[in-house]
Amino acid sequence: MPIIHINGRYLTKGNIKKTANGSSIPPDTIFVPNDTVYYRLIVTNIHGCKPDTLQRMFVTIDNPIASFNRSDTAGCTTLPVLFTNTSTVGVSAVWDFGNNQSSSLFSPPSINFVNPSNISDSIYKVKLVVTAGSGCKDSITKDIRVFPKPKAIFNNTNPICAIDTASAFNNSIFKGGITTYRWKFIQNTSSTINDTASFSPLFTFTNNQSSVDSTYNIRLWVTSVDGCLHDTIRPITVLRRPKAVFATGANINCGPALYTMNNTTSNVVSSYLWTTNLPSTIITDTS
């Protein structure tokens, strides 16, 4: 605190920190919060007149402390996180959640964090800046890790004939590591899956000689190494098999006998193959 006095003699004194002679004292920094420092200036002149003294007090207030808790630090997308502000009471707060969302509430509502990837983690840096009434500030940053959701994808042989076996072609996308699978028919059926936990199982369908084709819905669940889950459903059409039916009238006749075949076969027949116990084979195409 310089005092200018022509032809005067000056003594500038801090409490116990330092002393100096001259019209000024070098700048000083008070590092400790909630501290008090007194500066005293004693002025004398060359005439020996009674000195004059001026004392002033400098005070540092408590610095605010930024602090917060998270309801979750990591999880599968979409991850809702609730933040609890545990900073110094009476400060204002500004939040930056790292996902283009922000808030000036002391404790904001739950924030959703999304990972658009299917194969890698997303890390969001959440920053809280608190400001005291004095203008003093403090900040803290913490991470939120969001695991990717796998994407269940598969194709199969479609359509397929009844009693045939179909393969599943699993093209799912997921983060590296141990991944589990679960396969199931949506509707109740006696058709079977050879291994419901396999990457690509085989499906065997029951016989169908009815008048209509069958449609089955197959569901695949994929669970990633982080426990994140996704599922998908695909239909498969099982074509009905033809049903061979014919009548001959009387089975026993005096020879020579003429048998007339009454063919009532159903289900989209394109060709017929007739055989007898004679060495020859008769084929009649009625398509």
* CATH homologous superfamily assignment of the largest domain: Immunoglobulins
Task: Work out the radius of gyration.
Answer: 44 Å
Q: What overall form do the CA principal axes indicate?
A: rod-shaped
Poorly predicted regions: 1-16
Distance between the termini: 114 Å
Q: What is the highest CATH level, the class of the largest domain?
A: Mainly Beta
Number of strands: 25
Largest sheet: 5 strands, mixed
Query: What order do the helices and strands follow?
Result: EEEEEEEEEEEEEEEEEEEEEEEEE
CATH-level-2 architecture of the largest domain: Sandwich
Strand content: 35-45%
Number of domains: 3
- Read across the widest sheet, the strand sequence of neighbours is 6-13-12-9-10
Percentage of helical residues?
under 10%
CATH topology of the largest domain, which one?
A: Immunoglobulin-like
On the 0 to 100 scale, the average pLDDT is: 85
SS class: mainly beta
Number of helices: 0
Keywords:
single chain, 25 strands, mainly beta, Immunoglobulin-like, 287 residues, 0% helix, disordered N terminus, 43% strand, 4-stranded antiparallel beta sheet, 5-stranded mixed beta sheet
What does this structure look like?
- The protein is mostly beta strands and 287 residues long.
- It has three domains: 8-59, Sandwich (Immunoglobulin-like), CATH 2.60.40.10; 68-147, Immunoglobulins (Immunoglobulin-like, Sandwich); 154-239, Immunoglobulin-like.
- It is 0% helix and 43% strand.
- The chain has strands at 8-14, 19-21, 36-45, 52-59, 68-70, 74-76, 79-81, 83-85, 92-96, 102-103, 111-113, 122-131, 137-147, 154-156, 160-161, 165-170, 180-185, 192-193, 202-204, 214-223, 229-239, 246-247, 262-263, 274-275, 281-282.
- The strands form eight sheets. The chain has a five-stranded mixed β-sheet, with no helix packed on it. Strands 2-1-3-4 form a four-stranded antiparallel β-sheet, with no helix packed on it.
- The radius of gyration is 44 Å and the shape is rod-shaped.
- Residues 1-16 have low confidence and may be disordered.
